[in-house]
Design a protein that fits this description.
about 30% helix, single chain, alpha/beta, two-stranded antiparallel sheet, Glutaredoxin, five-stranded mixed beta sheet
């Protein structure tokens, strides 16, 4: 609990003021698919292209957000880190992923430092605005900039939650933001138990 409070305090200090509403960076369009398409092609911490196909044989636990987020993202990543910790050796079968919806500020280097603060096993991904938008649309994630006084001083309103893919890269379910870790852990262990071998 103390660690979560410190994380929130530290990251909350990055935002200087409550920003005013600005133009959305991405909203789902009318008539778009209502089911999750679990595909993405983004940039990893070393500048390499990474897609959902790179983790075949492992479960993927995915969150969308951004490093300047004052509350939702750090809380989500604290939960993700706790899930990996509680899974013990089974955590090797799960890849934690944090996809930034703020590619202008969240460079691969920034994301690498940020995700390591929570757990070095969590992989931070970003990309061009177009690649990020495509990934967000596939996962039905909404996000919108809310601007400050200059181009660098803004927040991003965004959808929250954890998306789980199976070892074949198929979407299994979305865990709602704020759901207790022990409940997610129980379901996650159930999924892990139903698939005993890696591909």
């Amino acid at each position: 609990m103390l660690r979560r409070w410190l994380v929130l305090l530290y990251l909350g200090s990055l935002l200087t003021a409550l920003p005013a509403l600005a133009e959305p960076a991405h909203q789902l369009l009318a008539g778009e698919a209502t089911v999750v398409n679990p595909r993405y092609l983004l940039i990893g911490p070393e500048g390499q292209a990474i897609s959902d196909q790179d983790f075949r044989g492992r479960f993927q636990l995915i969150a969308f957000g951004y490093t300047y987020c004052p509350d939702i993202c750090p809380t989500t990543l604290v939960d993700m880190a706790e899930l990996l910790k509680q899974l013990g050796p089974d955590a090797e079968r799960v890849q934690g992923i944090f996809i930034s919806v703020d590619p202008e500020r969240d460079t691969p280097r920034v994301l690498k430092t940020y995700t390591a603060f929570f757990d070095a096993r969590i992989l931070g991904l970003s990309g061009t605005p177009e690649l990020v938008q495509r990934a967000a649309r596939n996962y039905r994630v909404r996000y919108a900039k809310v601007g400050g006084k200059d181009a660098k001083n803004y927040a991003v309103d965004h959808s929250a939650g954890l998306y789980l893919l199976n070892p074949d890269g198929q979407f299994l379910k979305k865990f709602a933001y704020g759901r207790p870790v022990d409940e997610i852990l129980a379901e996650l262990r159930g999924f892990l138990g139903s698939i005993q071998t890696l591909h």
